[in-house]
Amino acid sequence: MSHYSQAKFNLSAPDISHLCADQGIEVAFAGRSNAGKSSALNRLTRQKSLARTSKTPGRTQLINVFDLDEDRRLIDLPGYGYAKVPMAIKLKWQKSLGEYLQKRESLKGLVVLMDIRHPFKDLDQELIQWAVAADLPVLGLLTKADKLKSGKRKAQLLMAREASLAFCGDVTIHLFSSLNGLGLDNCERVLDKWFGYAQDEALEQE
Fold first, then answer.
1. Do residues 81 and 32 make contact, with C-beta atoms less than 8 angstroms apart?
2. 169 class by beta-carbon count within 10 Å (0-12 exposed, 13-18 middle, 19+ buried)
3. Which end of the chain is more exposed for a tag (fewer CB within 10 A), N or C?
């Protein structure tokens, strides 16, 4: 059984001051409003409606916290880059996002979801730069990978991996599809490392 299928909704917070105590391990998911973040979280947790998917991009304006156990949490950050959100809200959100990435001690990794057809838009790059500056490892997931044929998929993956070198940080890029589960195993391997599941299992085997 996957560790992630145990995820349970804990709370929604308007900003980091309303989050639970800054202890344990958190991994945050972020992405543009149409990158398929909610679908990816639902696929990872094997739950159809843990994260609300919406036909209206930009619906998630709160930080949603999902508990895996007493010490481990998945954090669903608001989708960014949605045109219809008022500028004042965008600026407030950018400020609290920067604070969260730079000040949250329990944050151990950031998953950035990008549509495979349009990776590394300006806000994606800004987010990855913030994370690298805060010494956080980044997993870039190229979502909706099922929309491209195999050859084009591989070409986009190689191009994205090449582009990721410019960040000069711990940035890993993998393909992902919420629809058919492509790349789910790679995603889980990275998360297992960040959450310390891999170490726990190694200790049990000794």
1. yes
2. middle
3. C
Residue 122 sits at φ, ψ, to 5 deg, of -50, -50
Phi and psi dihedrals of 174, rounded to 5? -135, 160
Domain residues for 46? Answer: 8-204
Condensed to tens digits (0 to 9), the pLDDT of residues 192-201 reads: 999 999 776 6
The total domain count for the chain is 1
Cα distance between residue 177 and residue 149, in whole Å:
13
Which residues are registered as beta bridge partners of 114?
Answer: 142
Per-residue exposure over 130-144, b if at least 16 CB sit within 10 Å of its own CB, e if not: bbbebebbbbbbbbb
